[in-house]
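Practice problem: predict the structure.
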Amino acid sequence: MTECIALDALAERARVLDALDERLRRLLPAATARETRLADVRNGRIVFLASSPTWASRLRLHQADLLAEARTALGSGVERFAVKVAPLPTVPPEPTKPKPLSDATARHLRATATVLQDPELAALYLRLASIATDDSS
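Answer:
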């Protein structure tokens, strides 16, 4: 049970940091926002990651605005700002919509299902064939 509570707390902290990251990066020019991420908030310090020293320098130009917004979001305890140069975490790509099965593929799946000896496998082939779309659309 202790592990579940720890995981819940960790997930909630990640959600809070993600929301704060989005809020703070809205203050930045688009190019700077793309090359930086909020990494942590701890002991009165916000820590950002920048993809290169150049982006770290550009981010530091916005330090006062970022600290002010962090204080608004988190309270007056935020006093320091730090930037570390490190590769940014990758954002998983949006899942692509699967290409629908053609009518011809559905016919082949149905034909194969009729000759299969295993009834479960045949049922799976028929189920797969049922999601096919018409080639003429």
